[in-house]
Amino acid sequence: MKRDGTLQKKQRQGKKVQIFKSRKKKSTEEDAAIQYLRAQYDKIVPDEVKSFKDFPLSQKTLKGLKESNYTTPTEIQRQAIGYALQGKDILGAAKTGSGKTLAFLIPVLEKLFCTKWTRFDGVGALVISPTRELAYQIYETLRKVGYLHDFSAGLIIGGQNLKFEKKRMDQINILICTPGRLLQHMDENPLFHCNNLQILVLDEADRCLDMGFEATMNAVIENLPPERQTLLFSATQTKSVKDLARLSLSFPTYVAPHEQAETVTPESLQQSYIVCEIDEKLGILWSFIRNHLKQKVLVFMATCKQVKYTYELFCKLRPGVSLLALYGTLHQERREKIYNEFCRKSNVVLFATDLASRGLDFPRVNWVIQVDCPEDVDTYIHRAGRTARGVLGKGEGLLMLLPHEEKIIEDLKRRKIPINKILVDPSKIVTPQRKIEGLLSDNIELKQSAQRAFVSYVKSVSLMKNKDIFSCQMLDTDAYAKSLGLIIPPRIKFMYKHQNKIQNNIIKPQEDKVETNVVIDKLNAKADDVESCGQNAAEEDDKELKEVRCISAEKVIKKSKRKEIPNLNFHNSDYSDEDDFLKVKKTDNNLVVDEYMEEKQIISKKNTKPLTKAAVAKKILKKKIKVNTKVKFTEDGETIEDEKKDVKSQAAKLFMNEDVGGVDIEKAKEVLREEDKFDKIRFREKVKEKHREQKRKLKNKRKEEGEKDEFGSQSESDGPDLSWLPDPDNVYNKKAISNEYKSDSDIDQVISDNDETGDESEDQKYHRPPKRKLLENKGIPQDSVIPRKVKKIQDLSGSLSVLEAEAFAMQLLRAK
Ligand code: ADP
Ligand code: MG
Questions:
Q1: Mind listing the pLDDT tens digit for each residue in 498-534?
Q2: How far apart (Å, rounded) are the C-alpha atoms in residues 148 and 468?
């Protein structure tokens, strides 16, 4: 209103008022700004940059940063943005939570701004992230910082509506995506191409380029134009020449502001580890959660199934704090919901796989607990880096190690990770063991979940590359199963087979490390087999029914050592409001210098040979199992010989006794022909027997009737009046003759016809329709047509007595 008033006033005064800037003017202003900015790029001196304003950035980007409360660039931003604006390829390495996202998003926005990119120019920038959650997070940051720009941004991740995405792909300028989904669009969507791509970004680059994504990424890179700018960022950056060559990066600028830092992890991150037995882990975790109800805790475990079970179990045990679980096999919608819930809440525990270890910026996480030993140092850095993020972030990390896994600490220290050993006071650990066992006995689903968790963990250990730290043989699997609430440890088929091989000296113990991988790779093809649990044992081979006990000599020693472990004391003074369970009492003199597992398992599954029917057949042949054998018994329990299966011919007998691998088709054919002769004889005899039987019956019946005639007909009261029935003689004669008509030679003919031509007519193959019907179909009254032979007999039957007729019939039969 006010503005309108001023406008009218100005108009009245006759002044020229410009309501909108003309498009042309806007464009020339923009051109001038772009020219100015470009001219400034070469003058950037990173050390002199104190605020984002010191960078030659567009007003739109600067405003977006300011409104999101980003004023001072972080170290990686200060050093990387300048080079990126100059158009250089960047290899950026900086600690977790140091602001790498903006270090690549700002150059992306500026690059497209300076090339005056429009909606119709297609994809100008591509940002690839290894996980959906991270892609979503980058997308949200882009929206926040770049909302004043005119570009369109798209989030393309798995688990979404592919059709919906397909239609919009050609309109996206900045594409944030995961590798798999991107490749799917490249392969399937004719509207989508990246021919105009200006800038490619790989966040968590080392992960994007590692084995898990190798094939996908190679295919993606093939579809990208080589003349583009490439930015790679990670806390654990790849320097592999091979990786760089794959991306056609010959001389990238290496930007690593923390390379000379004393630690590779954030300074405000306090890190400790404990050494415990495998069966103590669950109790320690439970006690930890119970003692940190007012904290935000992120718990990492090795596999999805462990996360699922621990979450389900702890929910049932009701610790008094919100619990969440995030893992790869969850539905996408659930994943998004859980991710957002964990971001929002402050007193909450999230159980997660390594899916959540890379890049995710959950706000205000107090604790990161690593229940299972990380695969390698890089995984440790990323997991622990989910806390103590940003400029002011603080946090603590706790790593749980089994005694034989403690070796990893040396690797951590070598990589400049300050980590202290702390002790736990066992008296402070409360394990609701009885309650867990009770819950499992009541709830079969929970029990199965525990069994799956157990097997998946053992399997994950066996799949680990670093055999110096990870060893299935060192795991006290019985104790672990018990701690999960399983009284009978589930059977671990692949371990049993492996141990058997060692015992039978098929593999030598020193080959153990390599062979475990081989065995597991083979078994990956039958992942379900590996996971079959104790209760399914009845369906398995006798041999495999035996439960596996992985107790080796080493384990016995380990058990005896266990008793010597001193009292554990486990502290943290920062949280004095909590129970003294976790109060820090640093033992300084003790200081010694996503989805991945699941995905990797899936990948290795793909690489293994599928189990074919031929392989199964071979296995059966090897075991000399006779398939489909059926033995019949008499009531006394004696076997009945099935004469059909008895071979008669000499050739067949010889063939049966021959023990050759495979089948000689020609020989088998010959044997069948021989056997066929005997079959025909057998069949003919059967037919004859049947005829004889029918004749016998006929004879008996006639005799009965003859007797009736001799002794007078029965009185009416003796039975019903059957006078309306046709003359039985006529009928029986007809039958006898029709039987006769179907002679042995006729049957022979049918069989031999079949043999020779192999072309069975309907009549031969199936039951013939009665002639009566055929006649009816032709519209001829059946009574008027009588077969010739039958008619002849009918004529005679009128003049003959029963006995005479019988004698005549017999004569006819004999003549035949
Ligand atoms: P990284 O990718 O290095 O792990 P992120 O880009 O996720 O780190 O940033 C970590 C946190 O730091 C985020 O919460 C982000 O908002 C914040 N942050 C990034 N840059 C700045 C900045 N210049 N000033 C203040 N906070 C920042
Ligand atoms: Mg990041």
A1: 666 666 665 554 434 333 333 333 323 333 222 333 3
A2: 53
Distance, in Å, from the CA atom of 65 to the CA atom of 40, rounded to the nearest integer, reads 20
- Provide the pLDDT for residue 679: 84
- The stretches in the chain having pLDDT less than 70 are 1-24, 496-611, 624-647, 656-663, 706-801, 815-816
| DSSP single-letter state for residue 485 | T
Q: How far is the CA of 62 from the centre of ligand 2 (A)?
A: 21
Tell me which residues have their CB within 5 A of the ion that is ligand 2.
100, 359
Q: How far is the CA of 643 from the centre of ligand 1 (A)?
A: 85
> Do residues 196 and 121 lie in contact, with contact meaning Cβ atoms separated by under 8 Å?
yes
What 3-state class would DSSP assign to 254? strand
Helix, strand, coil distribution of the chain in percent, nearest 5: 55, 10, 35
Which residues lie below 8 Å from residue 751, measured CB to CB, with a gap of 6+? Answer: 680, 683
Q: Residues 6 or more apart from 556 whose CB is under 8 A from it? A: none
The encoded tokens of residue 88 equal: 């250089």
Q: Name the pairing type of β-strands 348-352 and 367-370.
A: unpaired
Strand partners, 176: 127, 155
**Distance (Å, rounded) from C-alpha 561 to C-alpha 567?**
14
Q: Does the CB atom of residue 101 touch ligand 1 within 6 A?
A: yes
Please write down the long-range contacts of 685-691, taking CB distance under 8 Å and 24 or more positions apart.
687/744, 687/747, 688/744, 691/739
Q: Is residue 483 a contact partner of residue 279, using CB atoms and an 8 Å limit?
A: yes
Ligand 1 and 73: CB distance under 6 A: yes
For position 90, what pLDDT does the model report? 97
Atom of ligand 1 nearest to the CA of 233: 2
Distance 137 CA to ligand 2 centre (A): 9
User: In this structure, which amino acid lies at residue 44?
Assistant: I
- Residues 618-668 have pLDDT tens digits of 777 777 666 566 666 666 666 666 555 566 777 777 776 665 555 677 777
Structure tokens at 695: 């004749």
* d(CA 213, ligand 2 centre) in Å: 18
- Give the architecture (CATH level 2) of 26-255: 3-Layer(aba) Sandwich (3.40)
What are the φ and ψ backbone dihedral angles of 762, each rounded to 5 degrees? Answer: -55, -45
Nearest CA to ligand 1 atom 9: 99
Beta bridge partners of 395: 269
Instruction: Indicate the DSSP class of residue 540.
Output: S
CA distance 15 to 9: 9
- Nearest-CA neighbor of 151 among 132, 171, 135, 133? 171
Distance CA 766, CA 500 (A): 57
Task: Report domain extents, the chain.
Answer: 26-255, 269-483, 509-606, 728-815
Where on the phi/psi map is residue 248: left (φ > 0), alpha (ψ -120 to 50), or beta?
Answer: left
Token pair 């798995």 is at which residue? 158
Nearest CA residue ID for atom 1, ligand 1 = 97
Query: Which bound ligand lies closest to the C-alpha atom of 92?
Result: 1
Residue pointed to by tokens 């192999």: 758
Answer yes or no: is the C-beta of 418 below 6 A from any ligand 1 atom: no
Query: Is the C-beta atom of 203 inside 6 A of ligand 1?
Result: no
Placement of tokens 């399914």 in the chain: 536
Classify residue 364 as exposed, middle or buried by CB count within 10 Å of its CB (0-12, 13-18, 19+). Answer: middle
pLDDT value of position 560: 39
pLDDT for the residue 732: 52
Asked if 272 contacts 420 with a C-beta cutoff of 8 angstroms, the reply is: yes
Using CA of residue 352, residue 353, residue 355, residue 356, what is the dihedral sign?
A: positive
* pLDDT score for 562: 40
Topology at the third CATH level for domain 269-483:
Rossmann fold (3.40.50)
DSSP state of 498: H
Q: Is 489 in the pocket of ligand 1 (CB under 6 A)?
A: no
Question: How many whole angstroms separate alpha carbon 155 and alpha carbon 134?
Answer: 11
